[in-house]
Amino acid sequence: MAKLLSMEDKDLGTIPSVTLRTSSYTDLDLSFTTKPDFGSGLATDVYKKFDADAVKQSIKNLLLTNHFEKPFDPYFGGNITRLFFELADDLTESEVEDDIKYAIETFEPRVEILNIFATIDPDTNSCIARVVFKVISTNKVTTLETDIARLR
């Protein structure tokens, strides 16, 4: 809860001016599936994701992005796939977890990380990442589990 006061409120001692500010997050669903308009049958809009689902999608995109993939922001992303052709051991999993934590803390201010698990499969050059986080504005705890793999 935040108090917003200004000079134009005149007598601030007698009239309380209190507003609640809750932020809701909105993002496009990246599958770009269109919503049908039931009146005309035409597709007029794409589905949207809200609040925790929008943040979850943002974190997944962040983890799947490598450095130098985003123009004008070369260090954006998790850059996790760089470790897939290294010798896999417990230190590699720890390094992946550290990279995930750094990327989320740096580029996603809407969440608080609660736990991160990473399991590397050296045979398929992939990693299963599980991130448990809390959305700050709603205090909703959400889990993201994604498989991060190289394309070649």
Number of domains: 1
CATH C-level label: Alpha Beta
Shape: globular
CATH topology: Nuclear Transport Factor 2, Chain: A
Separation, N- and C-terminal Cα atoms: 50 Å
Gyration radius, in Å: 21 Å
Strand percentage lies at 25-35%
- CATH-defined architecture: Roll
Give the topology.
Blueprint: E1 2-3, E2 18-19, E3 26-28, E4 34-36, E5 43-46, E6 48-50, H1 51-64, H2 90-107, E7 111-121, E8 126-135, E9 140-149
Antiparallel strand pairs: 1-2, 3-6, 4-5, 7-8, 8-9
Can you describe this structure?
With about 150 residues, this protein is of the alpha+beta class. The longest helix has 18 residues, at about 90-105. The chain has helices at about 50-65, 90-105, and strands at about 1-5, 20, 25-30, 35, 45, 50, 110-120, 125-135, 140-150. The chain has a single domain (about 1-150), classed as Roll (Nuclear Transport Factor 2, Chain: A). Helix content is about 20%, strand content about 30%. The strands form 4 sheets. The chain has a 3-stranded antiparallel beta sheet with strand order 7-8-9, with helices on one face. A two-stranded antiparallel ribbon has the order 1-2. The chain has a two-stranded antiparallel ribbon with strand order 3-6. Strand 8 (about 125-135) and strand 9 form a beta hairpin.
